[in-house]
Structures are given as structure tokens and as C-alpha cells.
Amino acid sequence: MTTVVSEAVTLAPPEPLVAAPRRRLRPGKPIPFGRLVGVATVVGIWALASAVGLLDPRKLSAPWTVLQTGIDLARDGTLEANTAASLHRAVLGLVIGVAVGTLLAVLSGLTRLGEALIDGPIQVKRAIPALGLIPLMILWLGIGETFKVVLIAIVVALAIYVPTHNALTSIDSRYVELAEVVGLSRWGFLRKVVAPGALPGFFLGLRLAVTGSWLALIVVEEVNAVDGLGKMMYSAQDYGQSDVILVGLVLYGLFGYLSDSLVRLVERRVLSWRRTLAN
Amino acid sequence: MATDVGQLSAVRATGLVRRFGEHVVLDELNLEIAAGEFVALLGQSGSGKTTLLRALAGLDRDVTGEGTLAVPPKVSVAFQDSRLLPWLRVLDNVVLGLAKGRDVGRAALAEVGLAGRERAWPTQLSGGEQQRVSLARCLVRDPQLLLADEPFGALDALTRTKMHGLLRDLLRRHRPAVLLVTHDVDEAIQLADRVLVLDAGRIVLDRAVDVPQPRSLRDPAFHEFRDLLLSALGATATADGSTR
Ligand SMILES: Nc1ncnc2c1ncn2[C@@H]1O[C@H](COP(=O)(O)OP(=O)(O)OP(=O)(O)O)[C@@H](O)[C@H]1O
Ligand SMILES: [Mg+2]
């Protein structure tokens, strides 16, 4: 006689079949919105400390005060005008700096003459922090917009020059050999081998450049400015408004983070052939 | 220095000398390869096989000597690593540097059994598949001479056997002269018309492979030839078959 099993049989979820799992050397699965978790934790601690009265509001305002101040400043148009002024400087400096830095890297990375003329001075210049140039720049250019944009552009150009130049000069010699064997023209070699090979270095430079442009922006706006986020924060310091200073800092941070994310997004698209630890 | 050669021979090199400092790697070396001939080059590690290959490929500008070096205008090189550019898709790698259209590239990929993988990135292919792409890149150029430096060295035995079949097939159709550097004595006997052994910068053995087709590992003639090569290579080969 046969028994008919009528109930549905539930099977245990299959065990992953890994024989003696290896030590995992790459980090595990990425945590969803991983970066936000860290930010939220910091803000949470800040809020908690403010709520229980651990923080003196004159030194560090509570998050909600900062938010309220931000809204107020946005209402009366102060924030918009200052942000626009800052963004204008940063973007202009970034664009000019990226163009100049990349051009110099290409000239010195690909031509012997360029290397002789450009690389030496740039390495010397690198030993002088860009901000040390401020007095000279003011002397030459006055304390107007030009000086600010030029200084940002210098910081950006240097940031992008170093990794790009390095990537251009360290193309794998095996690929050079291949290019010779298949008879690539000089132009084809640059287009098919050198440029794509140097792109990762360029993107690294671009990320450093974007961060550098915000850094330089803060400094030049603190030296002297009639508008801009830095100016807003400095005036607030005179009146002891820690909330206004924090609004400025949050905006700087936000712009810095967003621009870096944008660069990384483009990088992922353009360098999709790469398989790295990150994915 | 390199000039074109006539129809009869694909490579004619006499008196090639290559030094690295005091170290003479190629010592007045002579080599001739007929059109369409398949020559395997054996030699101990460091004997100068790669150096010779690079000289023939025109990659080495420091080859000296009194003699001549003549190679055909169309030479392809297959490297030990497949050497695909990781930022170019498979098809773009195959037609790299070619003016003619991508259709020939597609056809070459189909020939090596990789139709449909044109848009893959090289890192998405297995080692054997990458080596096949490299082979397609060589053949799409219709070479009169194919120089290959241990192209199958990194492959497992089974994949290697499959690649041998594929190579034989492709060569039957394209008929280039071939100089194949290999460490594998059996591979040399199975594929080549002629085997050379390089030692101390000179060719110390130059012998046509007289093992009848199909060259089976079971054939006593195969063993005899292998013993000959092994002793030329300096390995102790004994008559009782300890090298089997
Ligand atoms: N660029 C170089 N500078 C100095 N010595 C070199 C250079 N290239 C090769 N040699 C020397 O020349 C000799 C032959 O090298 P080669 O690469 O041709 O050997 P090989 O026969 O291909 O060896 P393997 O089978 O290990 O690939 C070696 O002794 C090596 O050390
Ligand atoms: Mg070698």
C-alpha cells in the first residue's frame, strides 16, 4: 500500500555550498546608502547632545536652530545671493584650472620639450602651498574677483596635473609594444592606448581638484570678499552667530559632497571596463 | 636593416648579434624559414628565444651583426599574455590599428569561435578565450609571418589541446609562416614542420619533424624525436623511456 503525502513539503533553504570558505580579502557587500549612515550618526549625536544641554548654543547651535536659520536666510535672499557668488567663483576656477592643468599634464607627459619646460617648475611650485601665494596674487591682481578665481584655478590645476601626468608617463610598456606590433600611428596610439590608459589618473585628479576648489574658495573668501558663503560666515563670527556659521559649513560640505559624487558617477560610466574592489 | 624577402623564404637572418652589456644572447645566429613553414623554437629558460623573436618582430632596435635580417612586410605577433587592451571591447581589440572595416574583425572572431562576444570587455573572458581573441587579432591582418611567444603557456592542458586544433585549422586556411616559441616539447612535435633548439645564442639543433601524421603520443617515432629534443635541451633522456 502506498501513502500519498498530501501536505506541501517545505524544504530548508539551501545552505551555501562553500567548502572551507576562504578568507575574504575584499570588503563584503556594500551597505545600502552606506555613506549616509555615517553622516546620520554624527548628526544624531549632535542633536542628542544639544537636546540634553551638553552643548552651549553660543558655541554650537542645535541642528534645528541651524535648519531654522538656514530657512530664514533663504527667505530674505541672503543665502541665495551668497551661494550664487561662491558657486560662480568655484565653478569658474574649476573649469579654468582643469583645462590648464590637463593641458600642462598632456604637454609635459607626451613631449620631451614639454617635460623639460613644465615638469620642473611645477614640482618646485608644488613645494609652495598655493595659499602662500595669496600676498603675491593680491599684489598683482588686486583683491577683486580675478585674484579669487586665479587662486582657485591654481589649486585645481596642480591637483589635476600630478595624477594625470603620472598616468600619462606610466603607460604599461607591454601596451606600447603591442601598439608598435599592430602598427598604430602616433595619433592612433594616443587615442587608443595613452588616453584611455591615463583616464583613471585624470579622474583621480578631477576628484582632488573638485575638493581643492572648495577648499581654496573658503580661504579666498575669508581673506576678503563682499559676498559669498565665506564672507557670510566671517561676518557671523563677529556677531557670535554660530548658527549662521554652521549653515555656511553645511552648504560647503553639501556642495563638496555633491560635486564629488557627480565626478564619481561620470567616472563609473566612463571607466565601466574597470572591475575594482568597489564593485 | 630589415628588407623584404622573396616568395620562397619568409625569414632570412644571418649573423644576428644581440648583447646585453657583456652578455652575448644571440651569437651570430642564422635562421631561415620558408613561406608557409611552421617552425617551433625550443630552448632553456634564458637561452634567448624571446630576444630572437623580438628581433624578428622589429621590436628590438639594438640588434647588431654583419649579416642580414629580412622579414616579410606583414608580421603578426602573439604574446604569452593575450595582451588585450582592457578598455577596448573585444572587437575593437581585434581590429586595433586596422583601416579596413569591422566586418573582417567579426569574421575573425567567428573563426576562433567567439561570434557574439564582440561587445564583451576582455576581463569578462576566460584565459583561453582571451588567447583566442589575440589569435583573431593576429590573423585578421593576413600575416605572412606569425611570431608566437609561448601563446599557450598559461593555459590548462585541455584548453591547450583545443587551441592546437584551432591553430592548425586556422593555419591551413591562412598559410602564414610560423615561428612558435614553446617550452612544451610535445607541443613542438605535434604542431611543427621543423624544430629548432637554441642554446648559448646559437641554434644547436635544426631538424624536420619526421613523425608521421597524425602525430600520436603513442607512436614510437614520436618518442624517439622527443628524446632527441630533450637531449639537445640538456635533459637526461634515457633509452628506457624515463622521459615518457
Ligand atoms: N632587457 C634586458 N636587459 C638585460 N638582459 C636581458 C634583457 N632581456 C633579456 N636579457 C637576458 O637575455 C637572456 C635571454 O633572455 P630571453 O628573454 O630571450 O630568454 P628566453 O629564452 O625567452 O627565456 P624564457 O624561456 O624564460 O622566456 C637572459 O639571460 C636575460 O637575462
Ligand atoms: Mg621568453
TrEMBL record, chain A:
UniProt subcellular location: Cell membrane
Among InterPro entries, the record links this protein to: MetI-like (IPR000515), MetI-like_sf (IPR035906)
Quote a single Gene Ontology cellular component term.
plasma membrane
Q: Does the keyword DNA damage apply?
A: no
> Where would you find the membrane-spanning parts of this chain?
33-55, 90-114, 126-143, 149-168, 193-219, 239-259
Which Gene3D superfamilies does UniProt cross-reference here? MetI-like
Q: How does it sit in the membrane?
A: Multi-pass membrane protein
User: Could you say which protein family the record assigns here?
Assistant: Belongs to the binding-protein-dependent transport system permease family.
Q: What is this protein called?
A: Sulfonate transport system permease protein
Automatic annotation (TrEMBL), chain B:
Pfam families in the record: ABC_tran (PF00005)
**What InterPro entries does the annotation carry?**
AAA+_ATPase, ABC_transporter-like_ATP-bd, ABC_transporter-like_CS, ABC_transporter_ATP-bind, P-loop_NTPase
GO function terms (MF aspect)? ATP binding; ATP hydrolysis activity
Keyword Nucleotide-binding set for record: yes
Q: Which SUPFAM superfamilies match?
A: P-loop containing nucleoside triphosphate hydrolases
The answer to whether keyword Membrane applies is yes
Key words, A-Z:
ATP-binding, Cell membrane, Membrane, Nucleotide-binding, Translocase, Transport
Name all ABC transporter domain ranges: 11-225
- Protein name (database record): Sulfonate transport system ATP-binding protein
What species was this sequence derived from?
Answer: Kutzneria buriramensis
